[in-house]
Design goal:
- The chain is an alpha/beta fold.
- The chain has 13 helices and nine strands.
- The chain has a nine-stranded mixed β-sheet.
- It starts with 9 loop residues before the first helix and ends with a helix.
- Bound molecules: S-adenosylmethionine (SAM) and iron/sulfur cluster (SF4) (2 copies).
- One iron/sulfur cluster binds next to loops.
Length: 361
Amino acid sequence: MSVNLGAFNAVNLGKLLRRSLEPVAYRFDSAFVKPSNITLSLTNRCNLRCPTCAYWKTPNEAKDTELTLEEMVRLLGQLREWLGPFMLGLTGGEPFLRPEIFDLLDEAARLGISTTTVNNGSLLPPRRIERLKQTPIHLVSFSLNHLDPERHDETRGVAGSAQKIFDAIDQLNYPGRQFRITLSTLLMGTTIDHLPDMVRWVRDKELDGITFQILYFESGNDDYVPGWYKSSPFWDDDADKINRGMDTLIGLKRQGLPISNSIAQMEAMRGYLLDPEGPQTVPCKVGVANMDIEPDGAVRLCDVMEAVGNVREAHPRDIWESALAAERRRQIHGCGAACRIKTCNFRQPVFSLVKGQLFPP
Ligand SMILES: C[S@@+](CC[C@H](N)C(=O)[O-])C[C@H]1O[C@@H](n2cnc3c(N)ncnc32)[C@H](O)[C@@H]1O
Ligand code: SF4
Ligand code: SF4
């Protein structure tokens, strides 16, 4: 196992400092710690049709309300000045529906901001792959749910989606590449038996990791419907199957295979798959950690609760420290929902974060 001494960079040290102070901020619902998990959603529109997601239902006219490149560049400058070097996640909808993404990534690098993006792999033809290879980015993640193309495409609602990911990965995964390539994969009862094969595939392809995400209520839909999972074609609550699947995945993680989730999160995921609406055992800390900036500039701490401001009207720091944000933190503190276990919301134990940085899988 090799030690990654580059982990001691300003981005990671800043994040670790914030993460260490989070428990105190959480205890008092305070804004004194700056956010450590910042995402910018470039669009809510999407070209695929995933049955588990509502973003693709966004009308095309929503385009007119999206932040322009100039507005996003101004926002990056404000964030950089406030936070110092940090990691910015670009998401959507489908982020590659915005051609400006390449200029935005260039600008982020110029400002000393590290970037990651998660995408569906369908908008990266060879010409764009070549552009991406020239673009300074820390990590590109592909959302792949099954190695069997038909099974993956069922989760995406469009035939041919898996093949486009395989093609994109083949072209991007060249020796000496300077960015990380990972998979983002839904952890579902119906596919849990297959996931160990995906972990081994990631290892054999020499990709940088696989991150599991629990299947939750429709992404992009704020109106939670209790019991939704009972009618989901991807839900299987066979306890033996879930326990066997989770035991195998945790075993692979212990053996050093490249699973990015911590064992603590994987145990929480097991509990969720067995009892998705049961009592929560971990706190939700999004109020002191997350800043989600939406395509129209709205800022949310919890991605399903109301916004606390808009970067078109105020500096992100003032939004973070606002009375409305304080009110939202109290609301978050009283929430009992399970989406705290989602990878975007779960707080990995600090020691596992340090270990993951120092000894990358
Ligand atoms: C909303 S998408 C946005 C980025 C891009 N369009 C993509 O699919 O990678 C982000 C992630 O959400 C996941 N996702 C979709 N439906 C979900 C659900 N119901 N619960 C949890 N994650 C979901 C996708 O598989 C994807 O990895
Ligand atoms: S999960 Fe991603 S690819 Fe699928 S519809 Fe939602 S935004 Fe689009
Ligand atoms: S658990 Fe956290 S992320 Fe989920 S709805 Fe509640 S406050 Fe929001």
